[in-house]
Amino acid sequence: MRLSKYFLPTLKETPSEAKIASHRLILRAGMVRQASAGIYSWLPLGLKVLQKIEAIVRDEQIASGAQEILMPTIQSADLWRESGRYEDYGKEMLRIQDRHKRDMLYGPTNEEQITDIVRHAIKSYKDLPKNLFQIQWKFRDEIRPRFGVMRGREFLMKDNYSFDLDEAAGRHSYNKMFLAYLRTFARLGLKTIPMAADAGPIGGDLSHEFIVLAPTGESEVFYHKGFEDFDAMGEAAVYDKDLQPLVDRWTSLYAATDNKHDAAACPVKSSDLKTGRGIEVGHIFFFGTKYSEAMGATVQGQDGETTPLQMGSYGIGVSRLVGAIIEASHDDAGIIWPEAVAPFQVGLINVRSDNEASTKAADALYAEFLKAGVEVLYDDRDERPGAKFSNMDLIGLPFAVTIGPRGLETGIAEVKNRATGERTEIKLSGVVKHFAKP
Ligand code: P5A
Predict the structure, then answer these.
(1) Mean pLDDT of 289-310
(2) Which CATH number is 346-435's, of 3.90.226.10, 3.30.505.50, 3.40.50.800, 2.30.30.40?
(3) Per-residue pLDDT band at 298 (split at 50, 70, 90)
(4) DSSP helix/strand/coil, 111
(5) What is the location of CATH 3.30.930.10 in the chain?
(6) 0.90 cut: is pTM over it?
(7) From 140, 192, 320, mutation site for ligand 1 pocket: most ligand atoms within 8 A of C-beta
């Protein structure tokens, strides 16, 4: 993409409403624009990152055996009356009436809707287990939407729902998602700690939050220092074996958010206990028959007996992750995208767009990048070199390749690594090969 043609409305000034780095940076880097409180439009650069996150989340869901569906954002209130949550949910639920005066709502989550689908479609134990996921917008009328996309009112969530015959099978489905989440967040370049959590309005008594440590996180968290040696990247995607040992290993060390932590009862000695702040990027729940019993989602077991389905639900804050990744990875100059979610892999800077030879060489390099399938953003604008460099730092592409008249004489381009700041010189003829994936 040529920057001269790209819709990238970056801001020079720091917006005053933005209190934390990720909020400032998504606005300054022209990734999103606020439409109204807690509601955002996604602009090309932001949407690209959102879609990359989505793709990794989807890939790991499919690898775990879940199947993708898409449910509507607008739901009928009647389903929520069946589960009893229509009254319980309170002011966070956006309630709407259609022209026939039927009560509708913009879904804050989809337990009722999926239970309705499954109760009509699944009648026998032979159809189990099933795990269905979607990536769909949600609406929660948060009293204090803040921190940009991290606590929005409209936000993108990956949510899925597991259906099993008995509790042991339901636990296995829960454990599968536990592993899938560890893998998903590691692939996104994040270190997360699973923490015992309250189930809140979703329900059930088994629940874990996946927390990214960041100084600007919303909740205070407490965890055993041993987590610093844990590595989710190494967890293999093998789902058909007993996963309880893996879950036990990841939950053997103490970790809790402030509403679960009890200093008096904490089993960890203070020299081993770390405290910090955390961002909840995922939350998983096992609530057994809470919805299936209320809504009559039953199957016939092998013995002919009718039993309610065992269910769990699992959520990842896809749009929140855009903010969370920035919180975990930025410096004073701007964003530092992990390669896996970077909107472009390489920024190409022609330092002298007023120089014919330099422009010709940069154009040729750009064409070569495109041909090699490398995602490149080419700053071909007629701007001062300093402005181009700081713009690249702001939007945070993993690598910046610079060519100018001086390099042309020697046949050299400079490559800067955004994360380390390290600069290397590469022969012009080898630049594209350096970045092309074999
Ligand atoms: C699990 C999936 C649920 O709603 N039902 C379906 C369950 N869980 S949850 O914890 O309430 O939400 C799942 C994840 O969504 C993100 N999230 C948000 N992101 C941005 N703005 C919000 N206001 C917001 N609320 C929740 C979080 O990442 C959460 O873990």
Answers:
(1) 96
(2) 3.40.50.800
(3) very high
(4) helix
(5) 21-335
(6) yes
(7) 320
